Amino acid sequence: MSADPATVPTQGAAPAPAPASFPPTRAPAERRGSVDVLAAMAKPLPFPPLDLMHDRTRTVSHAMAQSKRADEQRRRDKGKAKAEEPLDEAGISEGRRWKAGLRPGQAAKKLFPKPNLARRAYRRFFIKRDLKYGREWRPEELEEAARRGNFPHRPSDLFLKMYSDVLTCLTRDPLAGNVSPALIGTQGTIPLSIVSTIPDIMQHYQDCIVLAEKEVFLVTNYWQPSDSVKTVASGLKELNKRVGERKGEKVVVKIMWDRGAVQQLWHNHVSVSPQMWTPLGLPNPDEVPNLSLQVVNFHRPLLGTFHQKAMVVDRKIALLNSNNIQDRPNLEMMVHLEGPVVDSIYDNILISWHESLSPALPCLTGPTPTTHPDLFPFTFTDSNPYLANIDVAKAARAARKLLNRQDDQARKGEQTESLNPPEWWRRTSTSGPNPWPFGTFMHGHGHAHGHPHGLPRQESATDGAEGGKFAALVMQLIEKAREEKARLALGMSGIMNPGQDGQAAAVGSPAVMGSGAAASTAIEAPRESLLGDGIEAASIGSSDDSHTRVNGTSGKTLTGAETEKPDLGIKTQDHATAHNGAAVEPNPPGSNHPQEPSPTAAAASQEPPADVGKDLASTLPVSRNGDSNKGTVSSARLAALSKALNAGALAKIDAAIDDETLIHDFKPHLLHKAHEPFPIALVNRRPHGSPGHNDIRCPQAAAWLAALKYAERDVFIQTPTLNAAPIVRGVIEACSRGGKDGKGVPVTLFLGLGFNDKGESIPFQGGTNEEVVFRLFGQLRKLGKEDNLHVYWYTGKDQIRPLNAVHKSRNCHIKFMSVDGQCAIVGNGNLDSQSFWHSQEANILIDNPQIVADWMDQLRANQSTHKYGRVDTDGIWRDPSTGEELEKPKSISCFSAMRAVI
């Protein structure tokens, strides 16, 4: 990392120096612009003080670390007077000391007291005005914003504009973002993203839990007895077993949820006893003697729901996801984060915990990714231990093993053609386009800020050859294993002739595999995953001496076949009209590149070494839902995909698509190529229990509204519900007056048909998705801008028409926003009134066009929304073949809506 984070000073030492600024700090005499002008006009400054944003020791997590040290000192001194340690940080009086047993809520209140009522009321007006109507940020102000973050390089202007809006909220309340201000602007990497059903995400939770060495910190909204709970409980039991075998110290496990309790009327955080959590699926303390569990139930009445979903393990990795720990037929999204951003999420969860830590978290006083980055190297694909159980990572290890064996044989003279790939995985370059999009995952965005140093990646001489061979070998290993499983599922083992076998084992088409339907099995059980796993060629095309490790700023990127690919997502404004001037709709996410051709049969003159793919094949499930009458491997894959998407469904349904090849690009796990840390900002909101629509001055609302205000090319949103009045107004403004030319930008909405209609029908909630869509098109039609709005109802990967969420068969619960292909917001928050005004949420704003493009491609691949979900400009979906409209659900009365919520 190019920015040296502040280190913890010793007692009595001077405060740590501020991190280097981007760009370098100018002399005060040279600093001119709107910041000084505003001060002269007696208006509030738009940003918090620089020292507040720079002092890494002025955080709740640091205060808790000091308190823990005081407690350890008290234990050493056996209760003597020397039981306290002074607070080593700037901005706090020298006489203040942190006592042992400090609660995170106490630390937050002492570190960041709210300004007095008059000052808050004064700033309240300016902040709301800027967020609601927008503000033209000057270059000088953007540079000031860039200095108020621990970024590895200067972020893009779009990111800085959004981040500037976020910072204005901190001038009224430093904890408006529910994280210490010094940690809100940070950096990190994302080695893995999952877009799949809940079992796949919970399986990754389990994989990370069992690797814990000191602590697990897990928070969720719903905790409902289910297979998802069984998966977490199984991971905790396995962790307990491993701790016992290594005879290590107890692992501390903290869990927080929102289940509602009468006691929360007078105390929002209620401790949960083992007698209460055992019936909910958590193991009894007697079952896990090597773990120390503590559970808290948090809700802020009346409406302040704790809606956050995240997990931090050993302060090394953080998982941020859209799903609760329950079983639902939802398509969900999870991102795996590493680097200093983990410290930010850790601090955020500590503030939310609020109560005493009993026992204290071991990692409070240990090294962190911010203070000791050298101890937390960035790893990717099969080099990352937390990703070891993902099929593609296993295949990468197997492929590397095979290639190393061939190299050894070549050196010993035992093989004369070791540099040539065996026929069973060779691809011919003369057969047309690459049948598997390994070489097409790189995207030419042309953004100077895509690389930490503003320079394009230099291609290695071996990228096209060795990287391509390695990627092809990985996929062939996966295909051979999956093909065998599908054949066994259909009872066709040993029946197919070589030609059929080769055709069924098409190199480019990853197979469908049942999702985590058996997610509650033991950790050693065969791993179940969805159809196929996405992986970047650059992230696996490497040898052992140059693979996925990146240390700080001098890490090596991986080699691989990198073919330029057009920008994913919505077409830019300058391409939004046809040659005749007529408006044309932008392509849905990920569909701006040519259709990937169906792979041809691979030659099978040589079979792969049996011992190389054996371990991988043993981890792949056998589908039992295949239709033996069809007698094809694709049929088994299609049946397995439907089984996976039926996870948690009350009404299980079969696949409706006829073309089985449409499922071949499904990739629940996307292993991103190796990359340097990039700018990230936490854009959260705290819970607001009081009724009303007044709490707009929070980073989450600021980031969402800024995305719609500052977009110059396009905006893409996927959310289960969208009805918050400021968001609806922002969509209309973006479609009608957005962009540099003020003529509007395309806005694409992927929404859930009928999702939570009962709750959204309550007065003042904003209405159902259908009602909002009608209003949006009605308003834009009056302005002549209805062609800039593109609405789609979510359609499952195996379906050909949207299904109303009331059937609970195919729903989507993803919360995602992309802006201009440069920035994206992903996390917990829906774009509805409840999440916008009341619930506690956690989201990240990232500045990395490659990761954004990867996400857009993954979202497109894992659903059929862009193919079958398009809504006409009158707000009605019609079958493209028959013109038939969807059956209208029964109307919902206000009384039934209120009853459903209660």
Automatic annotation (TrEMBL):
Ranges of biased composition (kind: Polar residues): 620-631
Every PLD phosphodiesterase domain range: 302-329, 808-835
GO biological process, one term: cardiolipin biosynthetic process
Gene3D superfamilies, sorted: Endonuclease Chain A
Domain of life: Eukaryota
Low complexity bias spans: 1-15
SMART domains, per the entry: PLDc
Pfam families listed in its UniProt record: PLDc_2
Biased composition (Pro residues): 16-26
MF annotations from Gene Ontology: phosphatidyltransferase activity
Annotated spans, Disordered: 1-34, 60-95, 404-464, 537-567, 580-631
Comp. bias regions, Basic residues: 444-454
Compositionally biased region (Basic and acidic residues): 68-85, 404-415
Entry protein name: PLD phosphodiesterase domain-containing protein
Organism for this UniProt entry: Rhodotorula toruloides (Yeast)
Top-level taxonomy: Eukaryota, Fungi, Dikarya, Basidiomycota, Pucciniomycotina
